[in-house]
Amino acid sequence: MKAVILAAGKGTRMGTLTEELPKPMLPVQGMPILEHIITGIAAQGVREFCIIVGWKAEVIRKHFGDGSSLGLKINYVIQNIQDGTGKAPELAKNFVGSDPFLLTYGDILVRPETYKKMLARFAEDDFSGLITVTPGEDVRKGGINFFNNAFCLKKIIEKPNDEELNQLKVDGWLKDGEPIWYNAGIYIFKSVLFDHTAKLKKSSRDEYELTDAIGTMIDANETIAGNKIEGRWVDVRDPDVLKSLSK
Q1: Average pLDDT of the residues in 200-222
Q2: pTM reported for the whole predicted model
Q3: Range of the domain at 218
């Protein structure tokens, strides 16, 4: 298993905090967000990492180097064009080769045990991918996921508006009393993902969406396991969230 971390964005919602630092390098309890992520994944035996960098890339490179100080091998790829989450993983295609890989955004914090449970769930069957979810979030800000009785993905919709949510209720996808599963932004994929990202077209938001590639994987009968995150899940989206983590 390898790991790919998307850490190219500036994090404009952080304001002046990211003028000199890329968002994943902002400190949480004395350590960069990105280091929390890397050490948590490495604790599960993953030794090869590819970090997709962009804004202030040199800060990340200087801090982690080649990864040898952590007993790891870290590669870097520059993302020059910020055109959505769908194309960013393709930058790691050569690094991944034919191996499965854990994919995460560089601003999502979970307990190390989450990665352990993801790997265990992925090993349960011949899955093409795994998607993590958490209940009870405002799905209009992210992705909403629907699963079958085996907790494998049946349908995914990115940032549905109120009209789309109402239609999902009419069509029986959303039911009162059942949890709404929010996309938690950490995945495992086999390299078949790249067959689908290669065919992506830009969404109505003028971006390539990773969730669109996942949707075509479902259409192609690729089985994607679901995995509920237990305990901490934090999307470090703005200064208020960052501040709350220091308490």
Answers
A1: 92
A2: 0.93
A3: 2-244
